[in-house]
C-alpha cells in the first residue's frame, strides 16, 4: 500500500531542514526499514509544504514500530523545531491524503 501525507515546515527553516535530510542518521534509516517503511520520499515546496510518499503494508503499524525505537524519539524531537505542528510531534501531525487516481 502507498501512503501520501503532508506536513508544514517553517519557511525560515527550509534550508536547514533540507540539510538535515541530506544526512539522516544511519540508525534512523535502519529503524524505518525495520519498521516496514519502503520507497519513502519527501518533497518540499518553497512555501514549506512538505509532501511525503511511503509504501507500507500498514501505516499505523509502521508508525507504532517506530514509536518503539529510541532513535525515533530523538529524531522527532530534533525535527519538531522545523515544523508548524501546533506542538505535536511531527510524526503524529501528518495529514494523510486519500488517493483518488493512480496510473500504474
From TrEMBL:
SUPFAM superfamilies this protein is in? Dimeric alpha+beta barrel
Gene Ontology molecular function, alphabetical: racemase and epimerase activity, acting on carbohydrates and derivatives
What GO biological process terms are annotated to this protein in UniProt? rhamnose catabolic process
One Pfam family matching this protein: rhaM
So which domain of life are we looking at? Bacteria
> What is the name of the protein in this document?
L-rhamnose mutarotase
Amino acid at each position: 500500500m502507498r501512503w501520501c501525507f503532508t506536513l508544514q515546515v517553517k519557511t525560515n527553516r527550509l534550508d536547514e531542514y533540507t540539510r538535515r535530510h541530506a544526512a539522516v542518521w544511519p540508525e534512523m534509516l535502519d529503524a524505518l526499514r525495520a519498521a516496514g517503511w519502503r520507497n519513502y520520499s519527501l518533497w518540499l515546496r518553497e512555501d514549506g509544504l512538505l509532501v511525503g510518499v511511503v509504501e507500507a503494508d500498514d501505516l499505523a503499524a509502521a508508525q507504532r514500530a517506530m514509536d518503539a525505537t529510541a532513535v525515533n524519539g530523538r529524531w522527532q524531537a530534533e525535527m519538531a523545531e522545523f515544523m508548524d505542528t501546533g506542538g505535536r510531534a511531527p510524526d503524529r501531525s501528518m495529514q494523510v491524503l486519500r488517493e483518488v487516481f493512480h496510473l500504474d
